[in-house]
C-alpha cells in the first residue's frame, strides 16, 4: 500500500495491528477493551498465518476458501473470548444481585469509603494507571525489536522466508513479552488468563512458523491447551466471585 | 485400534464417573472395572508394533508397559484411598482422565505432542484441586483459590518454556552450526520441567497447593503427572544426547544446580510445621536427585534416574496416603498432631517412617538401589558433587527427625482420634511391602530400565 512517500507492506500493517492490540491490553483496564484486544490478536494471527507460503487453503466454507490451520485458530479465538466474556458478564450479574441487609452506620461508612476510594482512584488514574503501563509498553516494543534482531529464530530457518520471517520473529517475541507483562500487571483473574493466552499465541505462532510439517495432533493440542487455560481461569474466577459474594461485612459494632 | 481403546477406555470412564459422581459406590465400582479392563488390555497389547494415528506414531515398549502398569497401580491406590477417606468426589474421574492421557503420552513418540499432553493433564487436574468436601464451593478460603491460580499460571509457563525449547532443539538437530541454540534449548527445557515438577527454585506453587488440596489430588500430581514429566525428560536426553554432549557448560550447570536444589529443598523441608508442605518439599528433594542422574547422561546414571522415578511414585503416594489417613483420623496435618500416633495408629506411623527413610535413600528401602550408583557416579565426577548429595541427604534426614519425633511420644488420651479404615491400612502395608521388595530385589526392574537407558 502506498501512502504518499510511505510504503506500507501488509506485514508492517499486521505488526502495527499487533502493537495496537497489545497496547490496548497493557495500557487500558476495562473488560470489554481487553476482550476486544484479545479477539483482535486472534484475528491478526489468522491473517498472518494465512500469509505463510506453506499454509495452503484446503477447505471450502461456502464462498470462502480457507486453510484448516487458519480456521482452527479462528475457532479457538472465538471460543476463548466467548468463555472469558461469559465469565465476566456472569460475575457482574452475580455482584449486582448481592443484597445484604446493612445497618445505617455500616452503609454510611461504606458510602464514605466508596467516595474516598473514587477520589484517590481518580488521582491514581492519571499518574500510575497510565504512566507505568505506557512506559512498560514502550520498553517492551524496544526489547521485542532487539530480541528479534539479536536472536531471530524464524528468519534464519527460512520457513516463511524474507521479510515475512523477520516480522514473524518480531511478532512472536512481542506476543510473549506482552503476555508476560499482562500477567504481571493483572488485577483480575481474567486478565491473568488474557496474559497467558497471549503467551500461548506466541508459542502457537512459533510452532507454525518453525515446523516443517505441521502435525494435526500437535496443532489441535495447542488449541486445546488454550481453551483449557481459558476454562481453568474462568472456573477460578467464578470461585473467587462466589467467595466474595459470601464475604460477611462487619456490622457497626465490629467496625468499632 | 487396541492402542486407541487403551487411551479411550479411562477417558470414557472418567466422563462416566464424573456424571455419576453423586453415586459413590457406583463410581468406585465403575472406576475399578475400568482399571481392571485397562490392566488386561495393557498385558495383552503387542509390544513394538507401531501404528500411525492423526500423523503421530504410537508404539508400546517394555519400559512404557512398565510405567503404564505402575501408573495404573498408583492411580488405583489413590482412588480407593480417596474414596474411603472421603476426599471429595473428583479424585476418581480426574484420576481416570489423568491415567488415560498418561497412557497416550507413553504410547506417543513425539516429544512435542507429549509435552502438550502434559499441559492438558496438568490443567485438567485443576478441576480437582479446589474440590474440598468439607467446605461449600462458595466458601473456599482465598488462599486455596490463590494456590490454584498460582498452579494454573505456573503450568502454563511450563508449557511456554517446553514447547519453544523442543522447537529450538529440533532446529539445532537440523542445523548444528547454531551453537547458541543448544544452550537456549537446554535452558528452556530445564525451566519448563523445573516448573512442572516443582524443583527448587521453581517450586513455589507446589507447597501452597499441597497445603490446601486433598492428599489424593497431590498424590495424583506426583505419581502419574510428575512421573511422566520425568520420563519425557529422560526420553529427550536419551534420543538427543547432543543436548548435553555438545553443551558441557550446560551439563555442569544442570548437575551442580540439581545438587544445589536438593540441598535447598532439604533445608526448606526442615523449616516446615505442616506435614503436607513437608511432603511437597520431600517430592522436590527427590526430583532434584533424579535430575542430577539425568544430568550425568550416562547409561548407568540414566538407569538409576528411571529407577528413582519409579520409586518416587511409590514412596510419595505412600507418604501422602499416610498423611491423608492421619488427617482423616485426627483432623490435623501438623507436627503436634503426630503425638502418640506411633501407639494409636501404628500402620500410619510405619508408613510415614518407611516413606521418609526410602526417600532419603536409606537401605533396605526402595530408594537405596537408585541412590547407590548415583553416589558412585558423583564420586567419579568429583568429590564436591558427592559431598553435596550427602549433605542434602543428611539435611533431609534431619528434617524428617524434626518432623516425626512426636510419633514416639506417649499418647494423650484427651485428643480424639478415629481408627484408620482397614482398606487404607491394607494399602499402606502393600506400599510398604512394595518399597521393601524394590530395595531388596531391584534387579528385574533395573534390567527392564537398563534397555531404555541404552545399556
SSE blueprint and pairings:
The complex is a heterodimer of chains A (256) and B (455).
Chain A: E1 2-3, E2 6-7, H1 10-27, H2 31-50, E3 59-61, E4 64-66, H3 68-96, H4 104-150, H5 154-157, H6 162-185, H7 189-210, H8 216-245, H9 252-255
Antiparallel strand pairs in A: 1-2, 3-4
Helix pairs in contact in A: 1-2, 1-4, 1-6, 2-3, 2-7, 3-8, 4-6, 6-7, 7-8
Chain B: H1 2-19, H2 24-44, E1 51-53, E2 56-58, H3 62-84, H4 91-107, H5 111-124, H6 126-129, H7 142-174, H8 179-197, H9 205-212, H10 215-239, H11 242-245, H12 248-270, H13 275-296, H14 299-330, H15 341-344, H16 346-360, H17 368-381, H18 383-404, H19 422-440, H20 443-453
Antiparallel strand pairs in B: 1-2
Helix pairs in contact in B: 1-2, 1-4, 2-3, 3-4, 3-10, 3-14, 4-5, 4-10, 5-7, 5-10, 7-8, 7-9, 8-10, 9-13, 10-13, 10-14, 12-13, 12-18, 13-14, 13-18, 14-16, 14-17, 14-19, 14-20, 16-18, 16-19, 17-18
Core attributes:
heterodimer; A: 256 residues; mainly alpha; two-stranded antiparallel ribbon; two-stranded antiparallel sheet; 77% helix; 4% strand; B: 455 residues; 1% strand; globular
Tell me what the structure shows.
The complex is a heterodimer of chains A (256) and B (455). Helix content of chain A is 77%, strand content 4%. With 256 residues, chain A is mostly helical. In chain A, the strands form two sheets. In chain A, strands 1-2 form a two-stranded antiparallel sheet. In chain A, strands 3-4 form a two-stranded antiparallel sheet. Chain A starts with a strand and ends with a helix. Chain B has helices at 2-19, 24-44, 62-84, 91-107, 111-124, 126-129, 142-174, 179-197, 205-212, 215-239, 242-245, 248-270, 275-296, 299-330, 341-344, 346-360, 368-381, 383-404, 422-440, 443-453; strands spanning 51-53, 56-58. Chain B starts with a helix and ends with a helix. The chains are: A mainly alpha (256), B mainly alpha (455). The interface between A and B is large, with 39 and 41 residues.
